[in-house]
Amino acid sequence: MNILTYILSCLYFFLPAYFTNMTPPLTRRVNLFNFLDKEIDFGKKFLGQPIFGKHKSWRGAILGTLFGFLVALVQGYLYQFPAVQKISLLDYEQINIFLFGFLISAGAIFGDLLFAFIKRRLKMAPGARFIPFDQTNYVIGSAIFLTAIFKIGIMVWITLFILTFLLHIIINRIGYYLKLHCARW
């Protein structure tokens, strides 16, 4: 497998987590499912600081997990095509696609919450720079949730960590200059 195919394979594998991570900020902008717009930590504090913060909602977590799960199901369907098989790191016919979809998506949310928790312990405000973890927390969370069951190699995770970090910065810069995002990072 050449380097470009390998990069494409890593990105394709991680699509459910990318969609999971994109969903919470997008759901914040639309006026749907407002009944889920409740703080995950219910406004509770730990050691005098919010557990996660007001910006982490059930709406984002639930809809993010759901959208990522649906992307994984689409990947499972698309695996029947030879072109998709060539770039797939997983044999989607041999794995439990429901388990994969749930774990990669829930892992992405877990990573985001884990680093929000760490930022609050460090007394960092939501939106404050926490490089490289603001850009890659969902890679770490998905790795924690997936690796034991799906045996994804460490080089895939290192590649995804680096690619995600770079892509996140590029995409956020574009979003910032188009006034779609508040921070450059």
UniProtKB/TrEMBL annotation:
Domain of life, per lineage: Bacteria
Keyword Acyltransferase part of the UniProt annotation: no
Keyword annotations of the record: Membrane, Transmembrane, Transmembrane helix
Residue ranges of the TM segments: 6-23, 60-78, 98-118, 138-171
Protein known as: CDP-2,3-bis-(O-geranylgeranyl)-sn-glycerol synthase
Organism expressing this protein natively: Candidatus Nealsonbacteria bacterium CG10_big_fil_rev_8_21_14_0_10_37_25
